[in-house]
What does this fold into?
Amino acid sequence: MAPPVVQWNISPSMGQSYKCREGEVVPIPRYCLRVLERLGSCHIGEVIICETEDIELPTDKVAVRTCRGDSLREIRFLSSLQDPNLVSILGVCTGEQPPWLIMEYPAQLGDLVQHLNSTENLT
It folds into this structure.
């Protein structure tokens, strides 16, 4: 069954709503993630690299972003985005506070700035 279409006004100054689908988010127990490294933090949360244990995910390492308690709708929106140029949302840990947003960790891509500086013909 498809998720409901919701209306978001993502740019109030333009006065137009944006139609999007909210995806289902896979719950992942926090005990299945072992913290390897803390990358940093900012106003939206902290970013952590974790290793997965006892759970079937496409990768052994994941990136985790801590979230505010009221961001479940944002997480559902992000999980509905499917594009090869975006990291995928793999799940969410909501059993403990703060909630964790589990994303794929694109370690094989390397440093974006270095890639952009070394590549001449980007399409």
